Amino acid sequence: MAPVSDAALDSLHATATEIFTGALAACNIASAFDRRLGFEGQLMHRLLPEGSGPDTIDLSAYKRIFVVALGKAAGPMLETLLDRMKRRKGLRGICCSNQLPEKRNWRFRYFEGGHPLPNEDSFAGARAALALLRKARKDTLVFFLISGGGSAIFDLPLDPQVTLEDTIAFHRLLVASGAPINEINTLRKHFSAVKGGRLAMAAPEAVKISLLVPDVPLRSLDALSSGPTTPDHSTVSEVRELLSKYDLDEKLPAPIRAFFARKDLPESPGNKSWRPTFLPKLPWADAARPRHMTSATNMSGEDEAFRDSVFELLLSSHDLVENARTLARKAGYHVVVDNSCDDWDYAAAARYLLERFHAQRARHDRFCLISVGEVTVTLDRTPGAGGRNQQFALACALDLAQFPGEHLTVLSAGSDGIDGNTQSAGAIADPTTVTRARVFGYDPAQSLGAFNACPLFTALGDSVVTGPTGHNLRDLRLLIAEKA
């Protein structure tokens, strides 16, 4: 087969990039607010499907309104809420994100937390939020605006003897462990003073509304930013099993190892004897106050703090993948969506998706396999520059090299615009990636083994660079084929 032309490759790269960026652009926080919530004077409506009518909350029924915004989308979420909600009396809040918004409100305190590792502002933002929430009473309405990245951006150890340096080492160990996000966040929940429901516990009497933009599987929404406002049903026993499973005990800083070894290590808030599925959308009452999150018969002790809690999903990876599907179909591709490798090891995910891709593409002139979610990378050495998306793309490049002359491309990129410890969102691979990399002096297999994919893709001009997007809806993978 004749070598594929530069123009054909350029066209495939451009198509993949346009689908990714177009799908991301359609996931607009302001429009998501307007699809879910309506504001009319002092009334806020939850917009329900046609025929069921809106449920309403009267903001004037509350003496004070507090807002705690945390995560990568904290700035856009807060700006949109303040723009829609005209009420200003008694309004105060905290905004903690990895990037300070240009537009700031004097009623709020802003903190630039660290990501992927916490920093001083991560601690300061968490302390400020706890101090604010402890002022909440029955006449207080609290909005929690929660998005991905909050586990590092917004954190504070439960044990005051644990330092920031210890916390950074803890987060670094978890990220490198290869554990899926739900297990990582089980450990974070029991470590932190603001995770696993403890943030909500700081305002037990207040009515609480959590608006969510998750970067976790929809089946595990209580893992979003390690569940600061949701009751946690993981246990201390599970924490200790995970520490052993991933051989973390001896690697932990001494103060954290001592904390987890305590016989009186506190359980996170939440009734451990029953484990209902956490639902992202819960019914609102006809009156001003929301209905209970769970029935009173299922509540005891600390669960009472979650009694007046409502959760609303604004955007998710579902929106991202559906937008990508629409754009790919408009471009003339037969589209298949397969999200089954979510939280798999990157190499296993690459093998699985490529096997499906090669089996399906032979049947269609233009074919696009779409996959959303995150893969894991287990680090057994100090990594180079890269992230899970570039690692996945490079693994795919080694496979695609077996098909010279064919019109194939793979894009893998993070919707937050950041992949690992780089400024790239991800990368694009094709059948010529390996050959071109060697011309530039790179050994792709060696780069893969050293977790150092970013320099290779940067040299080839095949990095996906968007800059910070203001939210995180997980990663998008596109495997595209066109018959020559």
Query: What radius of gyration results from the CA coordinates?
Result: 23 Å
Strand count, sense and barrel status of the largest sheet are: 6 strands, parallel
For the record, the CATH architecture of the largest domain stands as: 3-Layer(aba) Sandwich
Low-confidence stretches: 274-301
CATH superfamily of the largest domain, by name, is: Glycerate kinase, MOFRL-like N-terminal domain
Structural class, from helix and strand content?
Answer: alpha/beta
CATH topology of the largest domain: Rossmann fold
Largest sheet: spatial strand order? 6-5-4-7-8-9
CATH class category name of the largest domain = Alpha Beta
- Tell me the span between the first and last alpha carbons: 10 Å
Name the overall outline.
globular
Helical content stands at 25-40%
Summed over residues and divided by their number, the pLDDT gives a mean of 88
The beta-strand count equals: 15
Number of DSSP helices?
16
Total number of distinct structural domains: 2
How is this structure best described in words?
The structure is a single chain. The protein has 484 residues and is α/β, with parallel strands linked by helices. It folds into two domains: 6-25 and 318-482, 3-Layer(aba) Sandwich (glycerate kinase, domain 1), CATH 3.40.1480; 29-314, Rossmann fold. Helices cover 35% and strands 18% of the residues. It has helices at 6-26, 29-36, 74-84, 120-133, 150-153, 164-176, 181-191, 198-201, 236-245, 254-261, 317-330, 346-361, 388-400, 433-439, 444-449, 453-460; strands at residues 37-40, 43-46, 55-58, 64-70, 91-97, 108-112, 140-147, 207-213, 309-313, 334-337, 366-373, 407-414, 426-429, 463-464, 475-482. The chain has a six-stranded parallel sheet, sandwiched between helices. The longest helix is centred in the first third of the chain and has 21 residues, at 6-26. It is globular and about 70 Å long. The N and C termini lie close together (10 Å).
